[in-house]
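note to self: the first set is below, dont mix up w the second
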Amino acid sequence: MMAEMNDRTREVFRRVVEGYLETGDPVGSRTLTRTMSEKVSAATIRNVMQDLEFLGLLDSPHISAGRIPTQQGLRMFVDGLLEVSDLTTEDRARIDETMGTNERDVSTLLDRVGSALSGVTSGASLVLTPKHEAPIKHIDFVSLGHDRALVVLVFADGHVENRVFAPPPGQTQSSMREAANFLNAMAEGRTLSELRESMKREIDRHRRDLDVLAQAMVDTGLAVWEHEGEPYERLIVRGRANLLGESEEDLERIRRLFDDLERKRDIAEFLELADEGQGVRIFIGSENKLFSLSGSSLVVSPYMNADRKIIGAVGVIGPTRLNYGRIVPIVDYTAQLVGKLLSGRS
């Protein structure tokens, strides 16, 4: 759409958006006649504004008022016309000063990062922290609704982390408690990744035991696998009434193995979802409800560790009329600085 605009239309659009971002007020045609690069009448500018309004890029709050950009218009402006300024010496100094301390605790450092961003930009800041990887002391699952759950991870070094994830369908608080009890019995001295590997070995061992026990029944035609290899496979026994002695005992052992295997599979799925869940977010300078309000924007940039792997993100939340040209380089610089600081620690 931007490529199809002529120079006059593009300039009117840009000046309306820039005027709105600066003042928060609608921009009128008479105002633009004083700033346009070419001499045009207010009537000509009004016609261009009407065309832009028809395209969904501008809106008129009142009949007699000027125009403001729509959400679509802001998006197009940010993507195609935004001129990002250089980071000012003052902004750089304030960020460097806040994070210039030799703070050993990562959580405290990231809290200071959030405070710095909030203070420099006069907006709310968001910090997505890297996930902790240390031996686990305790795990707990808390249901937040039918499609959301919270895993509370207490690490051996005293660090506590909360992660939100979507549990498997049909899970209850009771099943979550059972999963937590099972994992806590296995967790001591293991990291979350090591715990997942232990669960995988447990599942593989039970699967081998089940195969050995059931193979003889399959070979003699007394049973057949249904959905073999799939998570919900079943062993269908034919002519169970004809089974005698040890065969009946084998069938009971197979049933117990199936129950145990399915339980471990469910818990392993819990653990995998929890490991992939969102890390803790720290909000500085505003309440969480800001996200539920219409008319808010988020400028965010990831930060990386020494291996160039993304481990978190920092950002600024504010009204749609943020000074994007100033905020973008501040967020970008802060993310790079956090990455360097954390890489230096590791």
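second set (the one i keep forgetting abt)
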Amino acid sequence: MAIGTAPRYQQIAQMLRAAIANGTYKVGDLLPTEQELCEIHGISRHTARDALRLLSDAGLVTRKRRAGTIVAAPAEPVLFVQPLGGFQDLLQYARDARLTIMSYGPAPENGLAHELGLKPADWWELRGQRGTGTKTVGLTRVLVRADCAPSKAEIEARPTIADAIEARYGIAAARIDQQISAMVLDAMLAPLLGSEAGVAALRTRRLYHDAKGVLFLASESAHPADRFVYSQSFTRERAE
């Protein structure tokens, strides 16, 4: 999963799409003109035109001569909202976003194990898609320690891979370390998500440790920015 910077026109298109999704621009409203976008964002006319073209291709706006760019449809709502609260919240995604296994077997030499500094021979790697209904939320790679790797059938029979491991081997997660970072979808990942290369995305890595602190499960997921949101609320505490 390569990290990079999305082209400027795609960044502008994403910002406009988000503004449509949150109601800043409603159906029937006019978007800023190409000239206004140039002045607001310090971009060229060509960049502004390409950004609006992406919205038009997605069916979100119509462009009429002399009338401008008009919002034609609301942006699709985010498909999955992941609360960030306690331990169980971290497992919600794996339980609620259906996993479709694309491949499962001994970890390749150049796969996730290598990226995490682990010895590939000690791990199995699963690659799959997660979705809600017919919509794909994200792509995932999962490492399972070879000595506690459940079968594909056992994984498919349980809500999560962690559940399958606990049911078969009695190993449960006592601590989960999570890291969230920004990325863009490359030419290999984008088609699998029905998206465009260069689109902004979130990358989530999770490391699962047992009661002794030993790593037995690791995952990395990629989610297009318009399909996945992390949500957390805070309550202000009274000063003593």
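remember for set 2: Strands lie at 61-64, 68-71, 80-83, 98-106, 123-132, 135-145, 175-184, 200-209, 215-224, 228-231.
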